Amino acid sequence: MENILEYLENTAGRKKDEIAVDDGSRCLTWGELKDASRKMGSVLADSLTPGQPAVVLAEKSAVTLASMLGIVYAGGFYVPVHPEQPSGRICKILDTLKTEVVITEKEHLGLLKECGYRGRIILMEEALQGGINCEKLLEIRRNSRETDLLYGIFTSGSTGIPKCVVVSHKSVIRFIDHFVKIFGITEDDRIGNQAPFDFDVSVKDIYSSMATGATLVLIPRELFAMPPRLLDYLCRKKITTLIWAVSALCLISALKGLKYKVPETVRKVMFSGESMPVSQLRIWREALPDAKFVNLYGPTEITCNCTYYKVEKDFQDQDRLPIGRALPGRKVFLTDENQNEIVIPGKIGEICVAGESLSDGYYNQPEQTEEKFVTYLCEQRTYRTGDEGYYGTDGELYFAGRKDFQIKHMGRRIELEEIENALSGIPGVDSSICVFDRDRNRIIGFYKGKPASGDVRRALKEKLPPYMVPNRLLQAEDIPLNKNGKKDRAYFMRKISEETEEWKKGTRKAETGKKEIEKKEKGETGV
User: Fold this and answer.
1) The pTM is what?
2) Given 72, 121, 220, 224, which residue has the most CB atoms within 10 angstroms?
3) Do residues 190 and 237 make contact, with C-beta atoms less than 8 angstroms apart?
4) Which stretches of the chain drop beneath a pLDDT of 70?
5) Going by C-beta distance under 8 Å and a sequence separation of 6 or more, which residues neighbour residue 75?
6) What are the helix (H) ranges across 469-488?
7) Are strands 27-29 and 53-57 parallel, antiparallel or unpaired?
């Protein structure tokens, strides 16, 4: 197989009248999804140069999916952009891509005008009214190659410019073929999609569905603010497979949603994006004792995931979950500062990934691509993840944190320097620095300048997505420098660490007091 569209066409050929995608308000059969995608492709083919990007500016939906596939039919690669991102960031994305075409909905035209976009704009619903140019689409397919780009996903950039990771058809096909086989995804599954389309977790949902004929159920975003309604939805739609970010799963378990209702049809739960707290995993496993649970690891640059660990035993709350073994076709290894491979258990090194399914790098950013994609010990093109890991005495690979200032927060990968860049661009802010408090899972921004923290927060909300706005903003009298003349991040980490220790002491004291009261009450009542 050389083109991802073969998944769609093969499945549509044998399941034409069965539901392919259900977004809660609209369902498309496999035949309808194929036809809608080809209509989109026919319209786009008049404007889109093969091999070039086209932006899809829309919330996820069945029609949005058809638009993405339409771009592929037209020979381009799609870049999903969520319309709720600040216009300033959307402007940077459009500038990075230099795209000829944006496909969107009427309600988002103002955003494009605000960004000064001058390329062609195609409205989704209007494109669906057109015909299918079979001859043009066939010509495009004849000239396609497995190395053609399929999609681009924007991640945070340390320079303040977002980076677009671009991935080929070949990389996705190799990954999905392994993925559905290892985890037993079949046409009988109903995949409950949590992730927005501009988050690469959704790639597993979309193409696992297309490869097998499983139904893709797009879960409305607003339900994640209401765990009871979310659980009702999972039950009503008879969802069998969850491939979710850790934060989404914890939203349900931490708020005791599983005591309200258990989605008993769920048989597979796969999670990634952050470290899964063992205490939250235990709640899920107790609620779904017959389900399979899998810890997945891997950054966007290696096409979704490179390792997996099937959870088949109990862990203590203080334990770390392994990230496990490499997926077939990949080599995952650790290196020290001198690029020597590490094999000794317990020794921390940088996680590196080689083999099939690496992305093509960062679109229009060759220097950053060369920095991250190198040739290492295995004499293959290798991606340096910037993550640190170690081997346990059990032989499993474990994640140990970030090597630099990139973090995972709310399931998203974030460069702290991009937040700092936005902070420093606010009038009246002279200097800034951000740190991540891992113990309390929050971003804290310090700034030196005149504006009040409330004004700074409002300004940041116009520049950054909600998940990148610091949980706390603190005005600092000074931003000290270290001996190298750089902002002293360690100084602020110490301040946060001291505050966290006080918080922990207060929490322990409160818990002790609660236990004493409970003990006293039991003694008084004779229980």
Assistant:
1) 0.83
2) 72
3) yes
4) 157-160, 377, 482-486, 503-527
5) 45, 48, 49, 50, 51, 140, 143, 144, 148
6) none
7) unpaired
